[in-house]
From TrEMBL:
UniProt-listed Pfam families: SDH_C, Shikimate_dh_N
Family the UniProt entry places it in: Belongs to the shikimate dehydrogenase family.
This protein's name: Shikimate dehydrogenase (NADP(+))
Molecular function terms, GO-annotated: quinate 3-dehydrogenase (NAD+) activity; shikimate 3-dehydrogenase (NAD+) activity; shikimate 3-dehydrogenase (NADP+) activity
Keyword GTP-binding appears in the UniProt entry: no
Catalysed transformations (reactions): shikimate + NAD(+) = 3-dehydroshikimate + NADH + H(+); shikimate + NADP(+) = 3-dehydroshikimate + NADPH + H(+); L-quinate + NAD(+) = 3-dehydroquinate + NADH + H(+)
Record's subunit section: Homodimer.
Organism of provenance: Agrilactobacillus composti DSM 18527 = JCM 14202
């Protein structure tokens, strides 16, 4: 690391709170080192209150950009010069690129999800997806899948605080893309089962399956799945969630956790900042091999 840092090193940030647990600094700094790129990536504890000064600092310090995470993904949008159309539709920014003082906001979670499927030679364009969850991850996935040509998305959500956002996602998709989106109450189990049965992919973006809910899954009957479908859990810790175990019991061929999505959302940001492809397989082996 010290060998790489000199008077020309370009700074990239991560602005969120809490953030000390994040893998992103390790991921990006190892990728810079592997490719011999003169960048450094540092995490900063930034709240909504300190965000305006922090975003100003991107310009002042001539940083190349920053990742943005909770609680700043929405709030940051008012502080930027331009917003990428997909991020605008998602209503969130997780990556800022600084082009000589002009700050543009992107959302790479959705592109990361689609790219992670592409990495497995899977193409869900023209297919139907059932998607549980309409929070940060669910929204980014739904919007990008619709933009990329997924034919139909059935969003299932609880009638909780995110229900209104789920309704908004359906409206945005139906008014701005060719995809047909519909919202269902997840407690209507018969409909939930039928929507999955009709889908090429079931994606869970709720966080059920992650601590403290690691013993839970929204689908516990293997009979709900077909062998030829994709089952995708956005959770990556634990590596094998309860949902994935149920899908494996059903003999589902393509069962994934969220690790590929996490790596690829980082790789998308890496490409925006440096113009280079992140060595994703190298990073996966280095940081996540078990
Ligand atoms: P969020 O809080 O913004 O949204 C959570 C969603 O799940 C909401 O729609 C909520 O209604 C629903 N939900 C919550 N509890 C539920 C329950 N018991 N039953 C049914 N629905 C429930 O969260 P988020 O930021 O969107 O994150 C969701 C998950 O995605 C987390 O596990 C997170 O780690 C993961 N994630 C992964 C990546 C990745 O790159 N792999 C990126 C972002 C988030």
């Amino acid at each position: 690391m010290t060998e790489r840092i000199d008077g020309h090193t370009i700074l990239i940030g991560l602005m969120a709170y809490p953030i000390r647990h994040s893998m992103s600094p390790t991921m990006h700094n190892n990728a810079f080192a592997k490719l011999g790129l003169n960048y450094a990536y540092l995490a900063f504890e930034i709240t909504n209150a300190t965000l305006p000064q922090a975003v100003d600092a991107i310009r002042t310090l001539d940083m190349r950009g920053s990742n943005i995470s909770m609680p700043n993904k929405q709030k940051v949008m008012d502080l930027l010069d331009k917003i990428d159309p997909a991020a605008e539709m998602t209503g969130a920014v997780n990556t800022i690129v600084n082009d000589h003082g002009v700050l543009t906001g992107y959302c790479t979670d959705g592109t990361g999800f689609m790219k992670s499927l592409e990495d497995e030679n899977l193409d869900i364009r023209g297919e139907k997806m059932t998607l549980a969850g309409a929070g940060g991850a669910g929204t980014a996935i739904a919007i990008q899948a619709a933009l990329d040509g997924v034919k139909e998305i059935s969003i299932v959500n609880k009638k909780d605080a995110e229900w209104e956002n789920a309704k908004r996602n359906v409206e945005v998709i139906n008014s701005k893309t060719k995809c047909k989106a519909t919202l269902f109450d997840i407690d209507d189990q018969a409909t939930f089962k039928k929507e999955i049965a009709d889908s090429a992919i079931y994606c869970d973006a709720t966080g059920v399956g992650m601590k403290p809910l690691e013993d839970l899954t929204l689908v516990s009957d293997p009979g709900w799945f077909r062998k030829d479908m994709i089952v995708f859990d956005t959770v990556y810790a634990p590596r094998t969630t309860k949902l994935m175990t149920v899908a494996q019991e059903a003999g589902v061929q393509h069962v994934f956790n969220g690790l590929g999505m996490m790596l690829e959302q980082g790789a998308e940001a890496f490409k925006l900042w440096t113009g280079e492809n992140m060595p994703v397989d190298y990073i996966r082996d280095l940081l996540f091999s078990e």
